[in-house]
Amino acid sequence: MKRIAFLLLVLCAPALAATFTDDEARKIQSHGPWPAPWKSDPSNRVSGNENAIDLGERLFFERRLSVTGEISCSRCHLPERNWSDGLPRAVGLEEVDRNAPSVVNVRYHRWFGWDGAHDSLWAQSINPILDARELGMSAASVAKFIRGDRDLACRYRKTFGAAPGGDDERILVDAAKALAAFQETLVSGRTAFDEFRDALARGDRAAMARYSENAQRGLKTFVGKGACDTCHTGPAFTNGEFHDTGIAFFVRPGEVDPGRYGGIKKIVSDRMNLLGPYNDDAKRSTATGTRHVSLEHRNFGEFKVPSLRNLESSMPYMHNGSLASLRDVVKHYSEISPDRLHSDGEAILKPLHLTDGETADLVAFLQTLSDRGGRYQRRPFPEDCR
Amino acid sequence: MRALLVALLVAAPAAACELPGGQAHKIQSAHYLVLYRTQPAPLKVGQHFAVDFAVCPAPESVRIDAGMPEHKHGMNYRPTVTATGEGRYRADGLMLHMAGKWELVFEVRAKDSVERAVQVIRLE
Q: Which residues in B lie closer than 8 A to residue A242 (C-beta atoms)?
Protein backbone atom coordinates (compact mmCIF):
# COMPACT_ATOMS: atom_id res chain seq x y z
CA MET A 1 0.00 0.00 0.00
CA LYS A 2 2.79 2.33 0.98
CA ARG A 3 4.54 1.52 -2.28
CA ILE A 4 1.44 2.29 -4.34
CA ALA A 5 1.03 5.61 -2.59
CA PHE A 6 4.65 6.50 -3.37
CA LEU A 7 4.23 5.63 -7.02
CA LEU A 8 1.13 7.80 -7.25
CA LEU A 9 3.00 10.66 -5.65
CA VAL A 10 5.79 10.36 -8.20
CA LEU A 11 3.36 10.16 -11.09
CA CYS A 12 1.40 13.19 -9.92
CA ALA A 13 4.37 15.37 -9.02
CA PRO A 14 5.21 18.39 -11.16
CA ALA A 15 7.59 16.89 -13.70
CA LEU A 16 9.36 20.04 -14.83
CA ALA A 17 12.70 19.51 -13.16
CA ALA A 18 14.09 22.83 -14.31
CA THR A 19 12.50 26.23 -14.48
CA PHE A 20 13.57 28.42 -17.34
CA THR A 21 13.88 32.18 -17.31
CA ASP A 22 12.46 34.19 -20.21
CA ASP A 23 16.01 34.61 -21.50
CA GLU A 24 16.64 30.86 -21.37
CA ALA A 25 13.29 30.13 -22.99
CA ARG A 26 14.15 32.45 -25.90
CA LYS A 27 17.50 30.76 -26.33
CA ILE A 28 15.91 27.31 -26.29
CA GLN A 29 13.35 28.30 -28.90
CA SER A 30 16.13 29.57 -31.18
CA HIS A 31 17.12 25.90 -31.70
CA GLY A 32 14.02 25.24 -33.78
CA PRO A 33 11.79 24.64 -35.48
CA TRP A 34 13.09 21.40 -36.94
CA PRO A 35 13.47 20.42 -39.67
CA ALA A 36 14.50 23.77 -41.11
CA PRO A 37 12.85 24.69 -44.41
CA TRP A 38 14.24 23.29 -47.64
CA LYS A 39 16.12 25.69 -49.90
CA SER A 40 17.71 24.49 -53.09
CA ASP A 41 21.36 25.34 -53.70
CA PRO A 42 21.51 27.96 -56.47
CA SER A 43 25.13 27.08 -57.22
CA ASN A 44 24.00 23.59 -58.26
CA ARG A 45 21.55 23.54 -61.17
CA VAL A 46 20.40 20.01 -60.29
CA SER A 47 19.85 20.64 -56.57
CA GLY A 48 16.50 19.06 -55.68
CA ASN A 49 16.22 17.36 -59.08
CA GLU A 50 14.87 13.80 -58.75
CA ASN A 51 17.02 12.42 -61.56
CA ALA A 52 20.10 13.97 -59.95
CA ILE A 53 19.20 12.50 -56.57
CA ASP A 54 18.82 9.10 -58.19
CA LEU A 55 22.17 9.39 -59.99
CA GLY A 56 23.87 10.77 -56.88
CA GLU A 57 22.60 7.95 -54.70
CA ARG A 58 23.94 5.38 -57.16
CA LEU A 59 27.32 7.11 -57.30
CA PHE A 60 27.47 7.40 -53.51
CA PHE A 61 27.39 3.61 -53.16
CA GLU A 62 29.34 2.92 -56.37
CA ARG A 63 32.62 1.12 -55.67
CA ARG A 64 33.83 1.65 -59.22
CA LEU A 65 34.18 5.31 -58.27
CA SER A 66 37.46 4.38 -56.57
CA VAL A 67 40.72 3.63 -58.32
CA THR A 68 40.76 0.09 -56.94
CA GLY A 69 37.06 -0.53 -57.58
CA GLU A 70 36.69 -1.65 -53.98
CA ILE A 71 35.40 1.29 -51.96
CA SER A 72 32.78 4.00 -52.30
CA CYS A 73 31.73 7.15 -50.42
CA SER A 74 29.79 4.84 -48.11
CA ARG A 75 33.05 3.32 -46.89
CA CYS A 76 33.37 6.30 -44.52
CA HIS A 77 29.74 7.47 -44.52
CA LEU A 78 27.71 4.45 -43.45
CA PRO A 79 23.95 4.94 -43.12
CA GLU A 80 23.83 2.78 -40.00
CA ARG A 81 26.47 4.93 -38.29
CA ASN A 82 24.74 8.24 -38.85
CA TRP A 83 26.62 8.49 -42.15
CA SER A 84 30.00 8.42 -40.43
CA ASP A 85 32.19 5.37 -39.76
CA GLY A 86 32.77 5.03 -36.02
CA LEU A 87 36.53 5.31 -36.46
CA PRO A 88 38.75 8.00 -34.94
CA ARG A 89 40.19 8.78 -38.37
CA ALA A 90 38.59 7.83 -41.63
CA VAL A 91 40.14 5.09 -43.74
CA GLY A 92 39.79 5.23 -47.49
CA LEU A 93 42.55 3.67 -49.52
CA GLU A 94 44.68 4.82 -46.58
CA GLU A 95 44.01 6.37 -43.20
CA VAL A 96 43.51 10.13 -43.37
CA ASP A 97 44.21 12.72 -40.69
CA ARG A 98 40.69 13.52 -39.58
CA ASN A 99 37.47 11.99 -38.36
CA ALA A 100 34.84 11.35 -41.05
CA PRO A 101 32.12 13.96 -40.51
CA SER A 102 28.53 12.83 -40.88
CA VAL A 103 26.80 13.95 -44.07
CA VAL A 104 23.42 14.20 -42.35
CA ASN A 105 22.04 17.76 -42.46
CA VAL A 106 24.96 18.75 -44.65
CA ARG A 107 22.63 20.79 -46.84
CA TYR A 108 22.48 23.43 -44.08
CA HIS A 109 26.25 23.99 -44.03
CA ARG A 110 28.08 27.09 -45.25
CA TRP A 111 31.57 25.58 -45.20
CA PHE A 112 32.40 21.94 -45.77
CA GLY A 113 35.03 19.76 -44.12
CA TRP A 114 36.60 20.27 -40.70
CA ASP A 115 38.73 23.09 -42.13
CA GLY A 116 36.05 24.55 -44.41
CA ALA A 117 38.27 24.10 -47.45
CA HIS A 118 35.18 23.97 -49.67
CA ASP A 119 32.29 26.37 -49.98
CA SER A 120 29.68 24.14 -51.63
CA LEU A 121 28.52 20.59 -51.12
CA TRP A 122 29.36 19.71 -54.71
CA ALA A 123 32.91 21.07 -54.47
CA GLN A 124 33.37 19.18 -51.20
CA SER A 125 32.15 16.02 -52.93
CA ILE A 126 34.97 16.25 -55.45
CA ASN A 127 37.60 16.20 -52.74
CA PRO A 128 37.40 12.53 -51.60
CA ILE A 129 37.04 11.35 -55.18
CA LEU A 130 40.40 12.86 -56.12
CA ASP A 131 42.27 12.44 -52.81
CA ALA A 132 44.87 9.69 -53.25
CA ARG A 133 44.18 8.46 -49.71
CA GLU A 134 40.43 8.26 -50.22
CA LEU A 135 39.04 7.14 -53.60
CA GLY A 136 42.13 8.04 -55.62
CA MET A 137 40.41 8.84 -58.90
CA SER A 138 41.11 11.59 -61.45
CA ALA A 139 38.79 13.70 -63.56
CA ALA A 140 39.78 11.55 -66.53
CA SER A 141 39.06 8.25 -64.79
CA VAL A 142 35.69 9.46 -63.45
CA ALA A 143 34.67 10.72 -66.90
CA LYS A 144 35.80 7.52 -68.56
CA PHE A 145 33.83 5.44 -66.07
CA ILE A 146 30.59 7.40 -66.50
CA ARG A 147 30.89 7.61 -70.28
CA GLY A 148 31.59 3.90 -70.48
CA ASP A 149 28.75 2.68 -68.27
CA ARG A 150 25.57 2.59 -70.34
CA ASP A 151 23.21 2.94 -67.38
CA LEU A 152 25.10 5.77 -65.68
CA ALA A 153 25.61 7.59 -68.97
CA CYS A 154 21.87 7.38 -69.57
CA ARG A 155 21.10 8.74 -66.11
CA TYR A 156 23.69 11.50 -66.60
CA ARG A 157 21.89 12.50 -69.81
CA LYS A 158 18.51 12.48 -68.07
CA THR A 159 19.90 14.63 -65.26
CA PHE A 160 21.94 17.16 -67.22
CA GLY A 161 20.12 17.16 -70.55
CA ALA A 162 23.04 15.95 -72.63
CA ALA A 163 25.18 12.83 -72.80
CA PRO A 164 28.55 12.99 -71.04
CA GLY A 165 30.83 14.76 -73.52
CA GLY A 166 34.55 15.11 -73.92
CA ASP A 167 35.20 17.56 -71.10
CA ASP A 168 36.45 15.35 -68.25
CA GLU A 169 36.44 18.10 -65.64
CA ARG A 170 32.86 19.04 -66.50
CA ILE A 171 31.76 15.42 -66.02
CA LEU A 172 33.59 15.24 -62.66
CA VAL A 173 31.85 18.41 -61.47
CA ASP A 174 28.47 17.19 -62.70
CA ALA A 175 28.96 13.87 -60.90
CA ALA A 176 29.75 15.84 -57.75
CA LYS A 177 26.61 17.93 -58.23
CA ALA A 178 24.55 14.76 -58.44
CA LEU A 179 26.26 13.45 -55.29
CA ALA A 180 25.40 16.75 -53.60
CA ALA A 181 21.76 16.47 -54.70
CA PHE A 182 21.57 13.08 -53.01
CA GLN A 183 23.28 14.21 -49.80
CA GLU A 184 20.89 17.15 -49.55
CA THR A 185 18.12 14.62 -48.93
CA LEU A 186 19.78 13.32 -45.75
CA VAL A 187 18.09 15.22 -42.95
CA SER A 188 17.76 14.01 -39.39
CA GLY A 189 14.32 13.50 -37.93
CA ARG A 190 12.56 15.14 -35.04
CA THR A 191 13.86 14.47 -31.56
CA ALA A 192 12.70 14.51 -27.96
CA PHE A 193 14.30 17.93 -27.68
CA ASP A 194 12.25 19.22 -30.64
CA GLU A 195 9.04 18.06 -28.96
CA PHE A 196 10.05 19.90 -25.79
CA ARG A 197 11.11 23.02 -27.66
CA ASP A 198 7.82 23.21 -29.56
CA ALA A 199 5.82 22.56 -26.38
CA LEU A 200 7.73 25.40 -24.69
CA ALA A 201 6.96 27.68 -27.64
CA ARG A 202 3.22 27.06 -27.32
CA GLY A 203 3.21 27.02 -23.50
CA ASP A 204 2.11 23.38 -23.27
CA ARG A 205 3.37 22.35 -19.83
CA ALA A 206 1.89 18.87 -20.03
CA ALA A 207 3.87 18.13 -23.18
CA MET A 208 6.96 19.80 -21.71
CA ALA A 209 6.76 17.49 -18.71
CA ARG A 210 7.25 14.47 -20.97
CA TYR A 211 10.86 15.56 -21.53
CA SER A 212 13.12 13.73 -19.10
CA GLU A 213 14.06 15.61 -15.96
CA ASN A 214 17.80 15.15 -16.36
CA ALA A 215 17.58 16.36 -19.97
CA GLN A 216 15.76 19.46 -18.76
CA ARG A 217 18.53 20.16 -16.24
CA GLY A 218 21.16 19.49 -18.89
CA LEU A 219 19.44 21.89 -21.28
CA LYS A 220 19.50 24.56 -18.59
CA THR A 221 23.26 24.05 -18.26
CA PHE A 222 23.64 24.11 -22.06
CA VAL A 223 22.10 27.58 -22.39
CA GLY A 224 23.25 28.81 -18.97
CA LYS A 225 26.38 27.90 -17.04
CA GLY A 226 27.89 26.03 -19.99
CA ALA A 227 27.11 28.73 -22.57
CA CYS A 228 27.45 25.94 -25.13
CA ASP A 229 24.98 27.81 -27.33
CA THR A 230 27.51 30.56 -27.91
CA CYS A 231 28.85 28.43 -30.77
CA HIS A 232 26.26 25.65 -31.05
CA THR A 233 23.57 28.01 -32.27
CA GLY A 234 20.33 27.70 -34.20
CA PRO A 235 18.23 24.73 -35.26
CA ALA A 236 21.29 22.72 -36.38
CA PHE A 237 23.22 23.54 -33.18
CA THR A 238 26.18 25.07 -35.01
CA ASN A 239 27.18 28.55 -36.08
CA GLY A 240 28.93 26.94 -39.05
CA GLU A 241 32.20 28.66 -38.20
CA PHE A 242 35.56 27.66 -36.70
CA HIS A 243 37.12 27.67 -33.23
CA ASP A 244 40.13 26.38 -31.34
CA THR A 245 38.80 24.04 -28.68
CA GLY A 246 42.10 22.94 -27.20
CA ILE A 247 42.26 19.62 -29.04
CA ALA A 248 45.80 18.71 -30.04
CA PHE A 249 46.45 19.32 -33.71
CA PHE A 250 49.57 17.22 -34.14
CA VAL A 251 48.77 14.53 -36.69
CA ARG A 252 52.10 12.80 -36.18
CA PRO A 253 55.39 13.81 -34.57
CA GLY A 254 56.58 17.03 -36.15
CA GLU A 255 53.50 17.55 -38.30
CA VAL A 256 50.48 19.62 -37.43
CA ASP A 257 47.01 19.99 -38.92
CA PRO A 258 46.65 23.72 -39.64
CA GLY A 259 42.85 23.47 -39.55
CA ARG A 260 40.98 26.54 -40.73
CA TYR A 261 44.23 28.36 -41.58
CA GLY A 262 44.93 25.75 -44.26
CA GLY A 263 41.26 25.63 -45.24
CA ILE A 264 41.13 29.33 -46.05
CA LYS A 265 44.32 29.12 -48.08
CA LYS A 266 42.79 26.28 -50.08
CA ILE A 267 39.40 27.82 -50.64
CA VAL A 268 40.65 31.15 -51.96
CA SER A 269 42.84 29.45 -54.55
CA ASP A 270 40.42 26.67 -55.52
CA ARG A 271 39.02 27.07 -59.05
CA MET A 272 36.08 24.92 -57.94
CA ASN A 273 35.02 27.56 -55.44
CA LEU A 274 31.85 29.60 -55.75
CA LEU A 275 33.71 32.43 -57.46
CA GLY A 276 34.89 30.03 -60.17
CA PRO A 277 33.47 28.88 -63.48
CA TYR A 278 31.39 25.96 -62.17
CA ASN A 279 29.01 27.95 -60.01
CA ASP A 280 25.66 27.68 -61.81
CA ASP A 281 24.39 30.86 -60.16
CA ALA A 282 25.33 33.85 -62.29
CA LYS A 283 24.58 36.17 -59.38
CA ARG A 284 27.02 34.32 -57.11
CA SER A 285 24.41 34.79 -54.40
CA THR A 286 25.93 32.21 -52.04
CA ALA A 287 29.53 33.33 -52.60
CA THR A 288 29.59 36.14 -50.02
CA GLY A 289 31.62 34.10 -47.55
CA THR A 290 34.20 33.11 -50.15
CA ARG A 291 34.51 36.68 -51.35
CA HIS A 292 35.09 38.09 -47.88
CA VAL A 293 36.73 35.33 -45.85
CA SER A 294 39.72 36.64 -43.95
CA LEU A 295 42.93 34.73 -43.20
CA GLU A 296 44.21 35.41 -39.68
CA HIS A 297 47.00 33.77 -37.70
CA ARG A 298 44.46 32.79 -35.06
CA ASN A 299 42.81 30.48 -37.62
CA PHE A 300 45.66 28.03 -37.05
CA GLY A 301 44.24 25.02 -35.21
CA GLU A 302 40.64 26.13 -35.55
CA PHE A 303 38.14 23.51 -36.70
CA LYS A 304 34.49 23.69 -37.65
CA VAL A 305 31.81 23.65 -35.00
CA PRO A 306 29.92 20.41 -35.71
CA SER A 307 26.16 20.11 -35.56
CA LEU A 308 24.98 18.35 -32.42
CA ARG A 309 22.03 16.66 -34.09
CA ASN A 310 22.26 12.86 -34.14
CA LEU A 311 25.64 13.05 -32.48
CA GLU A 312 24.92 10.10 -30.19
CA SER A 313 25.56 7.68 -33.03
CA SER A 314 28.49 9.49 -34.62
CA MET A 315 31.19 8.80 -32.04
CA PRO A 316 34.13 9.22 -31.67
CA TYR A 317 34.20 12.99 -31.48
CA MET A 318 36.24 16.06 -32.42
CA HIS A 319 38.15 16.66 -35.66
CA ASN A 320 40.59 13.85 -34.96
CA GLY A 321 38.22 11.46 -33.24
CA SER A 322 40.24 11.71 -30.05
CA LEU A 323 37.30 11.70 -27.63
CA ALA A 324 35.44 8.40 -27.46
CA SER A 325 32.17 9.33 -25.78
CA LEU A 326 29.83 12.23 -25.12
CA ARG A 327 30.88 12.11 -21.49
CA ASP A 328 34.51 12.56 -22.60
CA VAL A 329 33.50 15.61 -24.66
CA VAL A 330 31.64 17.20 -21.76
CA LYS A 331 34.55 16.48 -19.42
CA HIS A 332 36.92 18.06 -21.95
CA TYR A 333 35.03 21.34 -21.78
CA SER A 334 34.57 21.03 -18.04
CA GLU A 335 38.27 20.68 -17.40
CA ILE A 336 39.77 22.52 -20.36
CA SER A 337 43.07 24.21 -19.71
CA PRO A 338 43.33 27.74 -21.12
CA ASP A 339 47.04 27.02 -21.58
CA ARG A 340 46.12 24.67 -24.43
CA LEU A 341 44.45 27.45 -26.38
CA HIS A 342 46.23 29.93 -28.64
CA SER A 343 47.60 32.87 -26.72
CA ASP A 344 46.54 35.14 -29.59
CA GLY A 345 43.25 33.36 -30.13
CA GLU A 346 39.77 33.87 -28.81
CA ALA A 347 39.05 34.06 -25.10
CA ILE A 348 35.85 32.07 -25.17
CA LEU A 349 36.51 28.78 -23.46
CA LYS A 350 37.05 28.52 -19.74
CA PRO A 351 36.83 25.39 -17.61
CA LEU A 352 33.20 24.86 -16.62
CA HIS A 353 33.99 22.84 -13.48
CA LEU A 354 30.81 20.80 -13.84
CA THR A 355 29.81 18.45 -11.02
CA ASP A 356 29.28 14.77 -11.81
CA GLY A 357 25.53 15.40 -11.75
CA GLU A 358 25.77 18.35 -14.14
CA THR A 359 27.96 16.30 -16.45
CA ALA A 360 25.45 13.43 -16.49
CA ASP A 361 22.57 15.86 -17.09
CA LEU A 362 24.36 17.58 -19.96
CA VAL A 363 25.08 14.20 -21.56
CA ALA A 364 21.41 13.26 -21.10
CA PHE A 365 20.38 16.46 -22.86
CA LEU A 366 22.79 15.87 -25.75
CA GLN A 367 21.37 12.38 -26.18
CA THR A 368 17.92 13.88 -26.75
CA LEU A 369 19.25 15.61 -29.88
CA SER A 370 19.30 12.27 -31.71
CA ASP A 371 16.28 11.11 -33.64
CA ARG A 372 14.69 7.72 -33.26
CA GLY A 373 13.55 7.64 -36.84
CA GLY A 374 13.54 4.75 -39.23
CA ARG A 375 16.68 3.44 -40.81
CA TYR A 376 17.74 4.71 -44.21
CA GLN A 377 16.58 2.56 -47.08
CA ARG A 378 17.83 2.96 -50.58
CA ARG A 379 15.18 4.09 -52.97
CA PRO A 380 13.77 1.41 -55.23
CA PHE A 381 15.53 2.09 -58.46
CA PRO A 382 13.93 1.60 -61.85
CA GLU A 383 15.56 -1.32 -63.61
CA ASP A 384 16.55 0.32 -66.81
CA CYS A 385 17.34 3.83 -67.88
CA ARG A 386 16.05 4.72 -71.31
CA MET B 1 41.93 63.14 -32.17
CA ARG B 2 40.86 59.63 -31.41
CA ALA B 3 37.55 59.16 -29.75
CA LEU B 4 35.60 56.13 -28.74
CA LEU B 5 31.97 56.65 -28.05
CA VAL B 6 29.69 53.76 -27.32
CA ALA B 7 26.54 53.88 -29.33
CA LEU B 8 23.98 56.42 -28.57
CA LEU B 9 20.63 56.56 -30.16
CA VAL B 10 20.76 60.27 -30.47
CA ALA B 11 18.10 62.77 -31.27
CA ALA B 12 20.82 64.21 -33.43
CA PRO B 13 20.96 67.13 -35.83
CA ALA B 14 19.91 64.84 -38.66
CA ALA B 15 18.35 67.47 -40.85
CA ALA B 16 21.52 67.85 -42.90
CA CYS B 17 22.40 64.17 -42.75
CA GLU B 18 20.13 61.63 -44.37
CA LEU B 19 20.09 57.97 -45.27
CA PRO B 20 17.18 57.52 -47.66
CA GLY B 21 15.24 54.28 -47.52
CA GLY B 22 13.70 54.12 -44.07
CA GLN B 23 14.57 54.32 -40.42
CA ALA B 24 18.23 54.33 -39.50
CA HIS B 25 20.24 53.87 -36.33
CA LYS B 26 22.25 56.94 -35.30
CA ILE B 27 25.66 57.10 -33.68
CA GLN B 28 27.14 60.44 -32.67
CA SER B 29 30.89 60.58 -32.17
CA ALA B 30 32.92 63.67 -31.33
CA HIS B 31 32.86 65.13 -34.84
CA TYR B 32 30.67 62.83 -36.94
CA LEU B 33 27.14 61.59 -37.14
CA VAL B 34 26.79 58.07 -38.54
CA LEU B 35 23.42 56.83 -39.76
CA TYR B 36 23.21 53.15 -40.64
CA ARG B 37 20.82 50.40 -41.55
CA THR B 38 21.58 46.68 -41.88
CA GLN B 39 20.33 44.47 -44.64
CA PRO B 40 18.72 42.19 -43.58
CA ALA B 41 17.39 43.40 -40.26
CA PRO B 42 17.22 42.31 -37.52
CA LEU B 43 20.59 40.63 -37.46
CA LYS B 44 20.93 36.92 -36.77
CA VAL B 45 23.90 34.91 -35.58
CA GLY B 46 25.87 33.44 -38.47
CA GLN B 47 24.11 35.31 -41.25
CA HIS B 48 25.91 37.53 -43.73
CA PHE B 49 24.65 41.08 -43.86
CA ALA B 50 25.32 44.41 -45.52
CA VAL B 51 25.29 47.90 -44.02
CA ASP B 52 24.07 51.03 -45.77
CA PHE B 53 25.38 54.08 -43.98
CA ALA B 54 25.99 57.79 -44.16
CA VAL B 55 28.71 59.79 -42.40
CA CYS B 56 28.28 63.51 -41.83
CA PRO B 57 30.26 65.55 -42.53
CA ALA B 58 31.67 63.45 -45.38
CA PRO B 59 35.08 62.03 -44.33
CA GLU B 60 38.11 61.24 -46.46
CA SER B 61 37.58 57.54 -45.90
CA VAL B 62 35.74 55.14 -43.65
CA ARG B 63 36.17 51.53 -42.57
CA ILE B 64 33.72 49.23 -40.88
CA ASP B 65 34.49 46.33 -38.59
CA ALA B 66 32.95 44.37 -35.74
CA GLY B 67 34.28 42.44 -32.79
CA MET B 68 33.53 40.81 -29.46
CA PRO B 69 35.78 42.63 -26.97
CA GLU B 70 35.01 40.17 -24.18
CA HIS B 71 36.08 37.28 -26.39
CA LYS B 72 39.01 39.15 -27.93
CA HIS B 73 38.11 38.43 -31.52
CA GLY B 74 36.71 40.11 -34.57
CA MET B 75 34.74 38.82 -37.50
CA ASN B 76 35.87 35.93 -39.68
CA TYR B 77 35.20 38.06 -42.74
CA ARG B 78 36.69 41.28 -44.10
CA PRO B 79 33.96 43.61 -45.34
CA THR B 80 34.34 45.87 -48.33
CA VAL B 81 33.07 49.43 -48.33
CA THR B 82 31.85 51.12 -51.49
CA ALA B 83 31.15 54.85 -51.60
CA THR B 84 27.77 55.55 -53.15
CA GLY B 85 28.12 59.34 -53.13
CA GLU B 86 27.29 62.29 -50.89
CA GLY B 87 28.92 60.76 -47.82
CA ARG B 88 26.98 57.53 -48.20
CA TYR B 89 28.37 54.01 -48.35
CA ARG B 90 27.53 50.35 -48.69
CA ALA B 91 29.47 47.72 -46.73
CA ASP B 92 29.21 44.08 -47.78
CA GLY B 93 30.39 40.81 -46.30
CA LEU B 94 29.86 41.24 -42.57
CA MET B 95 28.84 38.41 -40.26
CA LEU B 96 28.48 38.19 -36.49
CA HIS B 97 29.16 34.51 -36.00
CA MET B 98 28.50 34.06 -32.30
CA ALA B 99 25.81 34.88 -29.79
CA GLY B 100 26.67 37.61 -27.30
CA LYS B 101 27.84 41.22 -27.18
CA TRP B 102 29.33 42.67 -30.34
CA GLU B 103 30.62 46.13 -31.22
CA LEU B 104 29.97 47.45 -34.72
CA VAL B 105 32.70 49.99 -35.40
CA PHE B 106 32.78 52.77 -37.99
CA GLU B 107 36.33 54.12 -38.27
CA VAL B 108 36.21 57.54 -39.86
CA ARG B 109 39.36 59.16 -41.24
CA ALA B 110 39.94 62.76 -42.19
CA LYS B 111 43.31 64.54 -42.54
CA ASP B 112 45.36 63.37 -39.55
CA SER B 113 42.52 62.19 -37.41
CA VAL B 114 40.86 58.84 -36.89
CA GLU B 115 37.60 58.70 -35.04
CA ARG B 116 35.56 55.66 -34.09
CA ALA B 117 31.83 55.49 -33.71
CA VAL B 118 30.71 52.32 -31.99
CA GLN B 119 27.35 50.59 -31.76
CA VAL B 120 26.86 47.81 -29.21
CA ILE B 121 24.79 44.92 -30.55
CA ARG B 122 23.59 41.96 -28.50
CA LEU B 123 22.75 38.80 -30.39
CA GLU B 124 20.99 35.70 -29.10
A: 76
- Domain count for chain B: 1
The pTM for the full model equals 0.90
CATH of the domain at B98: 2.60.40.1930
Average pLDDT over residues B51-73: 93
Chain A residue numbers touching B69 (CB-CB < 8 A): none
Q: Is the pLDDT score of A78 beyond 90?
A: yes
Q: Do A291 and A268 form a contact (C-beta atoms < 8 A)?
A: no
> What is the ipTM, given to two decimal places?
0.85
Phi, psi (5° rounding) for residue A251?
-95, -25
Would you state the pLDDT for residue A346?
A: 61
CATH of the domain at A149: 1.10.760.10
Q: Using a CB–CB cutoff of 8 Å, tell me whether B124 touches chain A.
A: yes
Do B94 and B79 touch, CB atoms closer than 8 A?
yes
Whether pLDDT at B14 is above 50: no
Instruction: Please list every residue in chain B whose beta carbon sits closer than 8 Å to the beta carbon of residue A347.
Output: 70-73
Task: Indicate the number of domains in chain A.
Answer: 1
Mark yes or no for CB contact B73/A239 under 8 Å: no
- A134-A99-B48-A237 Cα dihedral, nearest 10 degrees: 140
